[in-house]
Design goal:
Blueprint (H helix, E strand, L loop, with lengths): L2 E5 L2 E10 L3 E2 L16 H11 L2 H11 L7 E3 L8 E5 L1 H10 L3 H6 L7 H9 L1 E7 L2 H13 L7 H19 L3 H9 L3 H19 L4 H10 L1 H8 L4 H4 L9 H9 L3 H9 L18 H8 L2 H10 L2 H9 L3 H19 L9 H29 L1
Parallel strand pairs: 3-5, 4-6
Antiparallel strand pairs: 1-2, 2-6, 4-5
Helix pairs in contact: 2-3, 3-5, 6-7, 7-8, 7-9, 8-9, 9-13, 15-17, 16-17
Length: 377
């Protein structure tokens, strides 16, 4: 007879130890949001091996064995008697590699010489519990990882909320954000913000935008992306209506975005070829970036130079004279620096010549403008 336990409001049935060949990684798990786009179990296993600190788990299992008090949690059994792991994917991935499971062998994955034999016997089957009600479990999962003790990162929260919105939209309609907010200990605004951030990327992917760019933002810069969407000008720049409130309004606003400008913004979150830093490299710069997007001259300067600091100085300068003073001050600092260094990069001369040409153009334009005004007087 199966034992039944309760965790929070979720009823779990203990199934005993299930052979790992019958346990499968969950390709849609919110905890693995940074790996969305990996559409096979092998691809996901390889990405987890590279980035998810499985080595630490492996060392722990080799030294201490598997903690039987932490069973993996699975959903409904398939027709073939197999299960998808809802909670415990990193643990399962570690066991798959340590035991030399066929899935690991196909991807050529192993931790270190001899490690598999050390822990294999104990990890060929894992203690497993099964959720009694998937809807109850989804609610519990959200509360636990959004407002509870084991909080997810921004991307993981957003993936969970995005899935919950799509699961409940037909039932709850325009009250979906509110209902989910109450369930997970948040509010409608918080749920809506996370949904919009994730849904915009999903829409971009569906429309054929650069998959590698979307994956990068989703996995590496999602928190900054969320902050950008909260600025005054960024959403409006690519034609997303930040005043959209209900689910229907939000979905319509997402469909109306300018995909070219959306791509432009997303591209500023990833380092360009030959550069180590992105145009928007620091989350503290999101307000400055927003200011630049709203200023035509500043935005043009950003596109020409990929220098957010210079572009922002133009956006906030009250007039042309103030902008020129800021540029002159920066050049003065460079002159001081040149007096302290022993060498300069090979391309510095060509850049300096460009500065000279631009300075002459500015000087000629200002002199000509003043001359015209004097003649009119």
């Amino acid at each position: 007879m199966l034992n039944t336990t309760t965790t929070g409001s979720v009823r779990l049935r203990y199934l005993g130890e299930i052979p790992i060949e019958k346990l499968h990684l969950d390709l849609d798990n919110p905890r693995l949001s940074q790996f969305q786009g990996r559409r096979t179990e092998g691809e996901l296993l390889r990405e987890l091996f590279k980035t998810a600190a499985l080595h630490e788990l492996a060392e722990s299992y080799k030294a201490n064995g598997y903690f039987s008090s932490e069973p993996v949690i699975v959903g409904d059994v398939s027709k073939d008697g197999e299960y998808t792991v809802l909670e415990g994917n990193r643990r399962l991935a570690t066991a798959i590699i340590l035991t030399g499971d066929e899935r690991a062998l196909e991807e050529g994955l192993r931790f270190s010489e001899g490690a598999e034999g050390t822990a294999a016997a104990e990890l060929t089957a894992l203690p497993t519990t099964q959720v009694d009600d998937p809807d109850e479990f989804n609610a519990f999962l959200g509360y636990r990882h959004i407002s509870g003790l084991r909080v997810w990162g921004a991307g993981e929260k957003a993936k969970y909320l995005y899935d919950e919105v799509n699961r409940l939209r037909s039932k709850e309609g325009d009250a979906t954000f509110y209902r989910i907010g109450r369930t997970v200990g948040s509010n409608a605004r918080g749920v809506r913000s996370a949904y919009v951030a994730y849904a915009l990327l999903a829409h971009a992917a569906a429309e054929g935008l650069q998959a590698d760019l979307i994956d990068y933002v989703r996995s590496q810069r999602f928190g900054v992306w969320v902050r950008l969407l909260g600025t005054a000008n960024t959403p409006r720049y690519f034609n997303y209506d930040p005043d959209a409130s209900t689910l229907g309004e939000v979905d319509a606003a997402i469909k109306a975005v300018d995909l070219r400008k959306l791509t432009e913004v997303l591209s500023d979150l990833r380092p360009k070829e030959g550069r180590s830093l992105a145009v928007l490299s620091d989350s503290r710069q999101v307000t400055a970036y927003s200011d630049v997007l709203a200023h035509d001259t500043a935005r043009k300067t950003l596109r020409q130079n990929d220098d957010l600091e210079i572009a922002h100085s133009i956006a906030r300068a009250p007039n042309l004279a103030a902008q020129l003073r800021q540029v002159a001050d920066r050049l003065g600092s460079i002159v001081d620096l040149l007096g302290e260094v022993d060498s300069v990069p090979p391309d510095a001369a060509s850049v300096a010549n460009r500065v000279v040409r631009l300075a002459r153009q500015v000087s000629a334009s200002v002199i000509a403008f003043n001359s015209e005004e004097a003649s009119e007087d």
